[in-house]
Write a structure and sequence with these properties.
Length: 148
C-alpha cells in the first residue's frame, strides 16, 4: 500500500511539472507583442543591464540572482569606506525589471510596466502583449503551481 501511494505522488508531481521550462525556479518572460521590447534591470533609476526580446521570443530570469547581483553586501567591520559608497541604495531602491516598449508612440501617455522581484518569485510565466484598445503593452502573469 505504501509503494502505491508513493508512486501516485511521483506521478502527480511529474504531471504538474511544466516540461517546456528549463529546470530551476526562474520565470519565463515571453514577448507576444508585434515589436521588440527591452527588459531593463534597474535599481531605482539606475540602469544595470538590458535584455532585448524580439517578437515571439522569451527570456528566463531569476529574481534571486538579480537580487544577489545588484544589491549591496553588508560586511561587518568594514567601516563604510569607498566600497559601501559605490553600492549605496536606500530601502526603497530594490532591483526590478522595467519593460520598455521599443515601438511605442511617445506622444501618448503609456501605462508604466515593470516586474518586481516578488513577481519573479510568485509567477512562473509572464506574457507581454500589445493591447490594441489601449495602444500600449500589457502584462499577463501565470501563478507558480507548487502543488497539484
Amino acid at each position: 500500500m505504501c509503494s502505491i501511494s508513493l508512486l501516485s505522488i511521483i506521478k502527480c508531481f511529474n504531471g504538474c511539472r511544466d516540461h517546456t521550462q528549463v529546470s530551476g525556479r526562474g520565470t519565463r518572460i515571453w514577448n507576444f507583442s508585434d515589436n521588440p521590447i527591452e527588459l531593463q534591470i534597474r535599481v531605482g533609476s539606475t540602469l544595470k543591464k538590458v535584455h532585448t526580446l524580439k517578437p515571439g521570443s522569451s527570456k528566463r530570469v531569476e529574481g534571486k540572482s538579480i537580487y544577489k547581483a545588484y544589491m549591496p553586501r553588508m560586511s561587518k567591520g568594514s567601516g563604510g569606506g569607498m566600497g559601501s559608497l559605490l553600492y549605496y541604495y536606500d530601502e526603497t531602491c530594490h532591483p526590478y525589471i522595467w519593460i520598455h516598449d521599443m515601438g511605442c508612440d511617445f506622444s501618448r501617455m503609456v501605462k508604466q510596466q515593470y516586474i518586481c522581484l516578488e513577481d519573479l518569485r510568485d509567477f512562473s510565466e509572464i506574457k507581454i502583449y500589445r493591447d490594441l484598445q489601449k495602444g500600449c503593452i500589457s502584462v499577463r502573469k501565470k501563478l507558480r503551481s507548487d502543488f497539484c
